[in-house]
Amino acid sequence: SVQIVWLRRDLRLADQPAFHAAAQAGPVVPVYVLDDDRAGDHAYGGASRVWLHHSLDSLARSLGAHRSRIVLRRGDAPQVLAALADEVGAACIHAMRHYEPWWKEAEDELRDALGDDCKLCLYDGNYLLPPGSVTTGSGSPYKIYTPFSKAMLDVMPPRDPLPEPDTIHSPDSWPDSPDLQDWQLLPAKPDWAGGITDFWDFGETAAHDRLDWWANEVADYDEGRNLPSQDITSRLSPHLHWGEISPAQVWYKLKDKRSDGWRTFAKELIWRDYAQNVIDQFPDYPRESYRDYDERKLWRNPDAGHLIDEDLECWQKGMTGYPIVDAGMRQLWQTGWMHNRVRMIAASFLVKHLLIDWRCGEQWFWDCLVDADYGNNGVNWQWISGTGVDSNMFVRIMAPLTQSEKFNSADYIREYVLELGDLSDDCIHDPPDEKRGDYPSKMIGHKEARERALEAYRAAK
Ligand code: FAD
């Protein structure tokens, strides 16, 4: 009998337990449902839609090699899937479990919507371990990263990755499906996504090529991961986010490296699991703060009105006058990705130098990142702002100019802030006025911003 595989952020064939089980059970109908309403303010942003288009295209080609396809449907996922199950006479819908609150709800609704002839089977495998697997001594889920990470390392490695199914049988007839182009996930004119398509290769094969490259570089990660000018991070984040590769595959490919670099990298992969544990416990985490004071009092938004809009726009466009912040924001706009060290500096700048609510930054990143991830984005913004369950870091105010120099960001700035392309290493981090040309002066001095932020914090407490 026919088996449906419901695809979401798990766009791969190898180590995809839902696909694996379906392929063993009968002819397979893979389906992707574009459900734009369910996630509300976290519907896919522009950059995510570009990635999704290319990733679906790539998966459809891989399935073509098995004489299989992806059926595309649009609408409310549980209803669409229940109708498709009726249409093809499916015995089971197989799906990877997802932890965003709207997907957890959709899974429950789908179970209720299916008749007696079709069941829903959910599988884990997009994370090293399912959220909630490691618990504190008293049996509760962890809230804080460091003990969570220690507990995870104690139970690693993850299970062995599964191979790609040898054979994927097709149904006798295929349900109708529109052409992927008809979904218009790519921008029309102007084509702002050119930088994204130049910067990335999409899909499962590209993810494994990237991992092969990374296996030779990971030893240098411990030293190199903070240097934005150098290519010493894996850039696997969009591939992991879209499930083009699984964390277990990454772990097994690298685990024999046994370098300090690998150990540090493993802890970053664990951050990804940590973020899912957080949103599993606190579904509104990317929207709500979890401090015992009214953190909204920190932000200038309520009384500064249009000034905030202008300040926010300067930050979004990379025109703050702080070269490292601007290089990061322009890298984000052009490529859909930003180096982690610079994400921290740019996020801290918005929240502490400009005193703008972190939710504005979270939403901009959500729209612009190709790896925009409900858990990772929300957890990192709250971590920087000191408003979440993990840290209370508001008073740790990063100094952008010192950070820029300390982590040798000159080449990175030259690459993205073209107005400063001719400046030497010794002045590019903080150019004197006469060397700025068309580049703006600083929106606010660091010392003044720091004092203002600390004062706001005292007042909010
Ligand atoms: P590597 O350094 O090679 O790390 C390997 C993998 O570990 C990454 O691909 C990612 O899956 C995971 N990882 C690394 N750091 C973190 C972290 N701090 N938190 C969670 N997982 C991590 N990451 C996202 O995937 N999506 C987001 O939406 C996102 N938003 C962020 C917002 C802010 C304000 C900050 C400070 C960080 C954010 N990050 C996010 C985390 C991190 O910046 C990116 O995962 C990383 O830069 C991706 O590059 P990479 O693949 O080369 O990472």
From TrEMBL:
PROSITE patterns noted in UniProt: DNA_PHOTOLYASES_1_1, DNA_PHOTOLYASES_1_2, PHR_CRY_ALPHA_BETA
SUPFAM superfamilies linked to this entry: Cryptochrome/photolyase FAD-binding domain, Cryptochrome/photolyase, N-terminal domain
Assigned keywords, A-Z: Chromophore, FAD, Flavoprotein
Family (UniProt): Belongs to the DNA photolyase family.
Entry annotated with the keyword Flavoprotein: yes
Essential cofactor(s): FAD; (6R)-5,10-methylene-5,6,7,8-tetrahydrofolate
Organism domain of life: Bacteria
Annotated TM spans: none
Domain Photolyase/cryptochrome alpha/beta, chain residue ranges per copy: 1-128
Taxonomic source organism: Qipengyuania pacifica
The protein's name in its UniProt record: DNA photolyase family protein
